TrEMBL record:
Coiled-coil portions: 367-394
GO biological process: DNA restriction-modification system
GO molecular function, one term: DNA binding
Pfam family of the protein (one): Methylase_S
Protein name: Type I restriction modification DNA specificity domain-containing protein
Domain Type I restriction modification DNA specificity, residue spans: 14-194, 212-376
InterPro entries hit by this protein: Restrct_endonuc_typeI_TRD, Restrct_endonuc_typeI_TRD_sf, Type-I_RS_S_subunit
Keywords: Coiled coil, DNA-binding, Restriction system
CDD domains, per database record: RMtype1_S_SonII-TRD2-CR2_like, RMtype1_S_TRD-CR_like
Family statement: Belongs to the type-I restriction system S methylase family.
Source species: Sphingobacterium paucimobilis HER1398
Organism lineage string: Bacteria, Pseudomonadati, Bacteroidota, Sphingobacteriia, Sphingobacteriales
């Protein structure tokens, strides 16, 4: 055993830490049946107080895109389930585990499928408990106690039985502050990425909007569409890398699989060359398009893609498939369809505004540079999240001490 550590039901923790059940230092409750049936069921009265339901907590943040409300007088009357600043709201039915820390008084009330957790001991930091609920350790507590039925759920008694490590209060606060700093770093990156995406959207709208001296041409008039395919004459031992529809997501290649022609999927037919543009013809509104820039000559994609090959600037044409000029045309093609899809003939008929090749390249370079910046920031964000996860693993177990 590591010096200065002790073995407990949740593993090794420092000698001066304790383990307590959540219910020993928290008031934990859910919405009572009569509260819901009498005051919440129809939400007919509306009001200024937002009811926090399980569906309103997404990625441990409050999603207010679909809210229900009750009057303040009702919330005040049902004081047991009223939410105040510092209360934790925990989803205990369906998707179990999301949690939110209430930051305002007189704004929220407990709703269906969520539990209220209120810290009642002065030697326990709410922020520390909140961060512990974000960790992998609470996930184990959930998995050990979850009841599987029509929907997975946890009873209040099982939530009260969660085992929680408790450092001395100053150390709880130091840990919470360190993790809060990491959260602030992550949030600043998320906000910067969101801002850069908006800037890019604005740039695309400005740069790709047709100008007076641009020609508008149909793709089929200056591009080859699906011009190179594997056929029944292909050597059965031919090996290739295959890109399926599932491998592409909004300009990103998520992976590929390797096959021999003799055992390959029946849709693995479109041969790819550098500069080819893969346009998803199945649910094209999801924008699962990709610009193939590899020098490799052994890639093949699904016939669910239409492959555009051109002697114009490929990147310029590719970016148009994320802009409004082209997507308005695609939406008109699939409107009213139960299964939104287009075909190669539709792709050939799509109109593209074309400036000079020099101008195409200039515009594509600007947008490509923006993409590169976004990709670098996204990589930085993933690294920040990984660092925070590492911090949680070390700080919440006492393997690293801040005090």
């Amino acid at each position: 055993m590591v010096k200065g550590m002790k073995q407990t039901e949740i593993g090794l923790i420092p000698d001066d830490w304790e383990v307590a059940k959540l219910g020993e230092f928290c008031f934990i409750t859910k919405l009572a049946g009569f509260e819901y049936s009498k005051y919440f069921n129809s939400y007919k009265d509306g009001g200024e107080i937002i009811v926090v339901r399980g569906t309103n907590i997404t990625n441990n943040r409050l999603d207010l895109s679909d809210v229900k409300n009750i009057p303040k007088k009702t919330s005040d009357f049902l004081y047991r389930s009223k939410l105040s600043k510092g209360d934790l709201v925990f989803a205990y039915v369906g998707t179990i585990g999301p949690i939110y820390l209430i930051e305002e008084d007189n704004k929220f009330h407990l709703g269906p499928n969520t539990a209220k957790i209120k810290i009642e001991k002065e030697n326990v930091s709410t922020s520390f408990i909140y961060n512990y609920f974000l960790s992998e350790y609470i996930r184990k507590e959930i998995e050990d106690r979850i009841s599987i039925g029509a929907q997975p759920s946890l009873s209040m008694s099982k939530i009260r039985d969660f085992s929680i490590p408790l450092p001395p209060l100053p150390e709880q606060q130091a840990i919470a502050n360190a993790l809060s700093d990491a959260d602030a770093w992550i949030e600043s990156l998320e906000q910067l990425i969101a801002k850069k995406r908006l800037i890019k959207q604005g740039a695309m709208q400005t740069l790709l909007t047709p100008k007076e001296d641009w020609d508008v041409k149909k793709l089929g008039d200056f591009c080859d569409i699906d011009s190179e395919n594997l056929s029944s004459n292909t050597n059965s031992d031919y090996e290739f890398k295959y890109i399926s529809l599932e491998n592409v997501d909004e300009g990103k290649l998520l992976g590929y699989t390797e096959h021999k022609y003799s055992t390959s999927p029946s849709r693995a037919r479109r041969v790819l060359r550098k500069g080819d543009i893969l346009i998803s013809t199945v649910r094209p509104n999801l924008l699962s398009h990709f610009l193939f820039i590899s020098e490799s000559t052994d890639f093949v994609c699904s016939t669910g893609f239409s492959v555009i090959r051109t002697n114009q600037c490929s990147a310029f044409i590719y970016y148009h498939f994320f802009g409004s000029f082209v997507n308005n045309q695609i939406n008109n093609l699939i409107i009213g369809s139960n299964y939104p899809a287009i075909n190669s003939g539709d792709v050939k008929g799509i109109e593209i505004p074309l400036p000079s090749l020099t101008e195409q390249t200039r515009i594509a370079t600007i947008l490509s540079d923006m993409d590169a910046e976004l990709e670098a920031l996204t990589t930085q964000l993933e690294k920040a999240r990984q660092i925070k996860q590492g911090m949680m693993q070390e700080l919440l177990t006492g393997r690293i001490r801040l005090l």
